[in-house]
Design brief:
By secondary structure, the chain is an alpha+beta fold. It folds into two domains: about 25-340, Beta-lactamase; about 360-439, Beta Barrel (Lipocalin). Helix content is about 25%, strand content about 25%. It is built from ten helices and 21 strands. It has helices at about 25-35, 80-95, 120-125, 140, 150-160, 175-185, 190-205, 250-260, 270-275, 335-340, and strands at about 40-50, 50-60, 60-65, 70, 75, 210, 225, 230, 245-250, 285-290, 295-305, 305-315, 320-325, 365-370, 380-385, 385-390, 395-405, 405-410, 415-420, 425-430, 430-439. The strands form five sheets. An eight-stranded antiparallel β-barrel has the order 14-15-16-17-18-19-20-21. The protein has a six-stranded antiparallel β-sheet with strand order 2-1-13-12-11-10, sandwiched between helices. A hairpin with a 2-residue loop joins strand 20 and strand 21. Helix 2 crosses helix 6 (about 175-185) and helix 5 (about 150-160) packs antiparallel against helix 6. About 45% of the residues are buried. Keywords: Signal. It comes from Flavobacterium endophyticum. This is CubicO group peptidase (Beta-lactamase class C family). Pfam families: Beta-lactamase (PF00144). InterPro entries: AmpC-like (IPR050491), Beta-lactam-related (IPR001466), Beta-lactam/transpept-like (IPR012338).
Length: about 450
């Protein structure tokens, strides 16, 4: 349920080719094996073309505590990709004349500010102005506790409004939680049943359903953060994200869902076009993912330490899906590599450098650093055997030593090069270099 914009996530390696080449699966397997061997990524990937899966791979553990390896049938929480499913359900209700997209929501949620102005269409497009409840400072405290509809609506209502409806767009998980309740009230059936009836069955999805408490015995993955080894992450109760982020699936099912959606098996052509129409970044449960000359549509997701992305290129009839339950790497690079392999473009197997620092040697890097080039200070501290960097107002980043006086946070492509004698440090990211001085 992260809000980061991924418009640039998938690079176009396909625009110059009419159809996919034969995949160098051995090279691609070596790439994923390198990630696995160096504790960089745990997860699963699938690619389909013309409705047929042409590559699938899973690495890492679905359940480290029980030494259970992931496989291509392992199921992951897909976070906000759930919004695409929920949008399909709402638009299906619209097609069946059970819902009018321009109906305002005051009869459903009279306590929501501006409910008499907010329409279902605006909820779908993130144009309601309703406060995003996952931005609440206390969200991380109560996210593991089950919530009723009454409790969730009260939480959302308490957040108020960030802007007048339909004056702008801002991503809000609250919109799709409310859409879940609207669907359940309209059909008088639980969301899980609607998902099964109107999407899973017609699309032939065998491993996609609304999640409950994670059941590792059912080949469901738990998620991990990396901090000097993989550490188990707490689990958001599924009664909170609902149709905003509560679905469980596999990459193989996600590409089948993508194929079914974009080839007209779930919605009418004109309804799909409505769903794909972008206004201020957002469609209806879809984002536009530009390839150089092509346009793909899809969504990404993040809940706890699960991350996911799917996309569909209609010109190439290509679907791609990636799910993860733990990442210690720049996740943007993985889709690029997979698509490179699919379309015969060269890619490198990364070499991961490591440099073991004695814990006592880390003290010379500790301190607060300021830069004339950037508007924030960077505090560097030691936590056990690890060096941690934290920018003002941001989350701490655990650094890995890669060379003498050089540390990296690979998930964001950040490198810090220290010069202890000069009490200086250089931050490198995305081709930029920024000089810092220790205060």
């Amino acid at each position: 349920m992260t809000k980061k914009n991924i418009a640039g996530l998938l690079c176009c390696f396909i625009s110059c080719l009419a159809s996919a080449q034969k995949i160098d699966t051995q090279q691609l397997d070596r790439y994923f094996n390198a990630l696995e061997e160096n504790n960089k990524f745990m997860g699963s990937v699938a690619v389909s073309q013309d409705g047929k899966i042409i590559y699938a791979k899973a690495i890492g553990f679905s359940d480290l505590e029980n030494n259970t390896k992931a496989n291509t049938a392992t199921k992951y929480r897909i976070g906000s990709i759930s919004k695409t499913f929920t949008s399909v359900l709402v638009l299906k209700a619209f097609e069946d004349k059970k819902l009018d997209l321009d109906t305002t929501i005051e009869t459903f949620f009279p306590s929501i500010k501006n409910a008499n102005k907010i329409t279902i269409r605006q909820l779908l497009r993130h144009r309601s102005g309703i406060y995003n409840f996952t931005d609440d400072e206390e969200f991380k405290i109560w996210k593991t506790q089950a919530k009723t509809e009454k409790e969730m609506v009260a939480i959302i209502a308490k957040g108020g409004s960030d802007f007048e409806p339909d004056t702008q767009a801002a991503y809000s998980n609250s919109n799709y939680v409310l859409l879940t309740y609207i669907l359940e009230k309209t059909y008088k059936k639980p969301y899980s049943e609607l998902l099964k009836t109107y999407i899973a069955k017609p699309a032939g999805l065998k491993n996609t359903y609304f999640g409950g408490k994670i059941n590792t015995k059912n080949n469901e993955a738990v998620s991990y953060t990396f901090a000097d080894g993989w550490k188990l992450e707490s689990e958001t109760d599924s009664s909170i994200p609902l149709g905003s982020g509560g679905i469980v699936s596999t990459p193989s099912d996600l590409v089948h869902f993508s194929d079914a959606l974009f080839t007209g098996k779930l919605l009418k052509k004109e309804t799909l076009e409505l769903m794909k129409t972008i206004k201020d970044t957002y469609g209806m449960g879809l984002l536009q993912l530009p390839f150089y000359e092509d346009i793909a549509y899809g969504h990404r997701g993040g809940i706890d330490k699960f991350t996911s992305v799917f996309s569909y290129s209609s010109d190439k009839k290509l679907s791609f899906a990636l799910t993860s339950n733990g990442s210690n790497y720049n996740g943007n690079e993985i889709p690029v590599v997979v698509l490179s392999a699919v379309y015969g473009k060269p890619f490198d197997i990364p070499e991961f450098k490591t440099f073991q620092n004695n814990p006592e040697d880390l003290e010379k890097y500790v301190g607060t650093y300021a830069s004339s080039q950037l508007p924030f200070k960077l505090t560097v501290s030691k936590e056990g055997k690890m060096l941690v960097a934290q920018a003002s107002g941001q989350a701490p980043l655990q650094l890995e030593g890669i060379e003498k006086d050089k540390f990296a946070f690979e998930k964001a492509g950040i490198i810090l090069e220290f010069n202890p004698a000069e009490k200086a440090m250089v931050l490198k990211q995305g081709g930029g270099e920024f000089a810092f001085v220790k205060e």
